[in-house]
Amino acid sequence: MAGKGPTFDPTEVRASARDWLGLVVLAFSVLLISVDATVLDLAMPSISADLAPSSTQLLWIIDVYSFVLAGLLITMGTLGDRIGRRRLLLIGAAGFGIASMIAAWSVSPEMLIAARVLQGISGATLMPATLGLIRTIFVNPRQRTTAIGVWGAMAGGGAAAGPLVGGWLLEHFWWGSVFLINIPVMAVLIVVGPMVIAEAKDPNPGRFDLVSAGLSMLAMIPLVYAVKESVVHGPTMVLAAIGAVGVAAGWAFIHRQRTLPDPMLDLSLFARPAFSTAVVTNLLSVFALSGVLFFGSQYLQLVLGKTPLQAGLLMLPGTAMSVVFSLAAAWFVRRWQPSVVLSIGLAVSSIGAATMLWLHADGGAGLFIVAFMLTGSGVGIALTLTSDLVVGSVEPERAGAASAVSETAYELGVALGVAVLGSVVLAIFRKGLDVSALGTDDAHSAQETLGGAVSVAKSAPDLVGAQLLDSAHLSFVSGMHVAAAATAIILFANAVLVYRMMRSR
């Protein structure tokens, strides 16, 4: 009697030493991309003094990188499935290194914004390729969760480590050095990557749809821009029209995916509660982390008077907790249901955000450390588990496209965290700032940013300067309180959603 043929059991396929070395290379590339998303937070005072950007340019310097990256991720993730994820990874590494050099030696706000756009384009090729390659390399589910834990630790830890890296560099070099650190790592990736990372792509990818690629960008960027500008300057008919363009493009994109035989984005994935909940959770957790980093670094430097390096060191415990809990998430889900682990992690982050309501202008560095540690712990868990849920839901040959969905949520969360929460802080700061004793030009400069107010206060007469500085500190902290309260509510609501939607799965 003929016996059954051998069956494929992914739990028996173990990764080789070469595979783990490939993970190290991928992890370092993710680390740098994530550092680049937040490394500018501490450099902004130096850039403001050197390039004198407006408040709008200041926000664009920080978040245009994430806007462009988020707009291109779906396109690049699908492209990587077609031409090869490793090939796209190496192309992106070369482009990222070149863009970093341009950014480092920028001589105007416009040049720096353009360089950040180029970084975003290159970063969009790197992020989905790294996670997609991990899905292909690590077939064993338990090993894959561990590998994604390392990837998540680098992504979350990199975002949180950005201020520390930037702080050290700014203590010793000029602000352009925060970009030059990318070049050696990208060079190593280009040289070592082909030796330890096998090529992977979809053998039957179907036709690449340029119209869908254009619609995905046309949906993402106008919507985020309209939200950002509305929060900063108030809603207008022009911004409403720009937002409407994004909504219309998004509707057209979705409609087109439903009719194409080979869609760029498989919308049926979102019908799975675990998948859609994981994507939303990924976005909101990074939204919280990036917002805290944006206003937290300014609080430490410009309110409490810490140097860039001191501010980075004060953020180090939170960074460490994010990394530790990203790695520990794989251990937690072997003992408890993912819905329980994920919802508890989000609740802890919510408590961390709420703790910031007790920060004040006269001091509070210790309380900030505790709050950031709690926030970082929950976000670390969320990044690992949501990414694992997303890439584990599709077959390996489509890992790039699925990874792009997760990465789009991540990068959109970074951009919106800075744009929305940062703009809320700025709006309340401007409303509470007392500029009655200043001339028109000084008043305008003080209302642009907290850094501008501090600069004006230093050059003003003693009494006027002291009053302006007190007003600036109090109004900025008031804005932080509102942003922290909103963040805590959003994260707690997300924790409840996760538990309800995923507890039976």
Short descriptors:
80% helix; transmembrane; 0% strand; MFS; transmembrane helix; single chain; disordered N terminus; 505 residues; mainly alpha; MFS_trans_sf
Describe the fold and architecture.
The protein has 18 helices and no strands. 80% of the residues lie in helices and 0% in strands. With 505 residues, it is an all-alpha fold. The radius of gyration is 23 Å and the shape is globular. It is a multi-pass membrane protein. It is found in: Cell membrane. Keywords: Cell membrane, Membrane, Transmembrane, Transmembrane helix, Transport.
In short:
This protein is mainly alpha-helical.
Task: Show the helix and strand layout.
Elements: H1 17-38, H2 40-51, H3 55-83, H4 85-104, H5 109-137, H6 141-172, H7 177-180, H8 182-196, H9 210-233, H10 237-259, H11 273-303, H12 308-332, H13 338-355, H14 365-391, H15 399-432, H16 440-448, H17 450-459, H18 462-502
Helix pairs in contact: 1-5, 1-6, 1-8, 2-6, 3-4, 3-5, 3-9, 3-15, 4-5, 4-8, 5-6, 5-15, 6-11, 6-12, 6-14, 9-10, 9-15, 11-14, 11-15, 11-18, 12-14, 13-14, 13-18, 14-15, 15-18, 16-17, 17-18
Main location: membrane
Subcellular location: Cell membrane
Pfam families: MFS_1
User: What's the β-strand tally?
Assistant: 0
Largest sheet: none
Structural class: mainly alpha
As residue ranges, the low-confidence spans are 1-8
State which percent range the strand residues make up: under 5%
- Provide mean pLDDT, rounded: 79
Number of helices, where a helix is a run of at least 4 consecutive DSSP H or I residues:
18
Cα radius of gyration in angstroms: 23 Å
The helicity comes to over 70%
* Topology pattern, helix = H, strand = E: HHHHHHHHHHHHHHHHHH
- First CA to last CA: what distance? 40 Å
Shape, per Cα inertia axes:
globular
